[in-house]
Amino acid sequence: MKVAILDIKGKDTGRKVELSEEVFGIEPNEHAIYLDVKQYLAHQRQGTHKAKERAEIAGSTRKIKKQKGTGTARAGSIKSPVFRGGGRIFGPRPKDYSQKLNKNVKRLARKSALSSKAKDKALIVVEDFNFDIPKTKSFVEVLSALGVGNKKSLVVLGDTNNSVYLSSRNFKGAEVVKSSELSTYEILNANSVVVLESAVAGIESNLSK
After folding, report:
1. Are 162 and 92 in contact (CB under 8 A)?
2. Tens of pLDDT along 197-208?
3. What's the pLDDT tens digit per position in 55-106?
4. In angstroms, rounded to a whole number, what is the distance separating the alpha carbons of residues 112 and 83?
5. Strand, helix or coil at 39?
6. Alpha carbon distance 142, 192 (integer Å)
7. What distances in angstroms separate CA 149 from CA 98, 126, 162, 167, one per listed residue?
8. Which of 55, 66, 80, 164 has most Cβ atoms within 10 angstroms of its Cβ?
9. CA atoms of 3 and 118, how far apart (whole Å)
10. What is the separation of C-alpha 68 from the centre of its chain, rounded to a whole number of angstroms?
11. What is the pTM of this model?
12. How many CB atoms are closer than 10 A to CB 93?
């Protein structure tokens, strides 16, 4: 699969890059995508939620009224869950929500997501670029020239590029990641995937194993 390489002005450079059919041209496996996205979202949960139960509430331990003769139900503690301010019955406790997923399934999910974007013409390859100084305006201008300035975008770098990364931090419409950090969720969450030329080889190397 050959894709034209654009420059930062959005114009065709006249060069093309050969994208591996094994990575960018497979039939998307929806179940693999579902499992990988499910794991990603589960890992975003901190699991620190906690409610105090009866034994953890601060309060008097004396019997609040006599056992018989009141005409009401028996009550032995003000910390009982039936009273306001009492403990909570079966309240949430800290929990680890992480899930395990086979590496091959994760790899298949990412290939499926990339193939889906390539099939929908939502994958753009751009020649490598840099900024003299980190500047959000320069980053937005590049995305606008590529026709994705008003869309949610994912920019994939071949290697660490601080000027591009720092330029993107104040712009909520785009995420910048290295090819080695790609996730299925980020690919699918973006309307357009902008891949720098140097990142293509890294993506194919990581996903062809």
Report:
1. no
2. 999 999 999 998
3. 999 988 899 999 999 999 999 899 999 999 999 999 999 999 999 999 999 9
4. 54
5. helix
6. 14
7. 35, 15, 20, 14
8. 164
9. 9
10. 59
11. 0.82
12. 10
Structure tokens at 31: 């179940």
Q: Coil, helix or strand for 164?
A: helix
DSSP string covering 197-209, please? HHHHHHHHHHH--
Residue written as token pair 């995508």: 33
Task: Please report, as a single letter, which amino acid is at residue 88.
Answer: R
pLDDT per residue as tens digits for the range 113-154: 999 999 999 999 999 998 989 999 999 999 999 999 888 999
**Options 3.40.1370.10, 3.40.980.10, 3.20.20.80, 3.40.50.300; CATH of 2-45+101-207:** 3.40.1370.10
For β-strands 174-178 and 192-196, DSSP reports them as unpaired
Domain ranges of the chain: 2-45+101-207, 50-96
Contact 123, 145 (CB under 8 A): no
Residue with tokens 């869309």: 151
